[in-house]
Amino acid sequence: MTYQEIINSSDVEELNKILPVVQRVHGGNHPEIYRVGEIYTDILKGMKLGKNNEKMNKLLNELKSITGNFIAPADVCATYCRTYELLAKLTEEISKAA
């Protein structure tokens, strides 16, 4: 899968819809979700520019780190869990495309 295919995937479309909702609902108790959103945005920008470099790897590693390797907190909703599931899949697809 290429970066362009990843960007145009239904997973990215779903993330674009649900991540802002998760931030609004859970950001008060889980402020790290705001940084997750920033990293996600930076990753999308990097893919659009075709970047396959150390900065992209750094972003992917930070995303894994801040999410505890995509393990959702115990007190969150299914949509939050779905967000982490999609981010984990996205990270894997980007690694394969790189």
List the defining traits of the structure above.
single chain; 98 residues; mainly alpha; globular
Tell me about this structure.
By secondary structure, this protein is an all-alpha fold. It contains 5 helices and no strands. Helix 2 (10-26) crosses helix 5 (78-97). The longest helix has 20 residues, at 78-97.
The low-confidence runs, each spanning 5 or more residues with pLDDT under 50, are none
Question: What is the number of helices?
Answer: 5
What spatial form do the alpha-carbon principal axes imply? globular
Q: Using DSSP, what is the number of strands? A: 0
Strand content: under 5%
The helix/strand order is: HHHHH
Mean model confidence by pLDDT: 94
Class by SSE composition: mainly alpha
Determine the fraction of residues in helical runs and give it as a percent range: over 70%
Question: Ends: how far apart?
Answer: 10 Å
Largest beta-sheet details? none
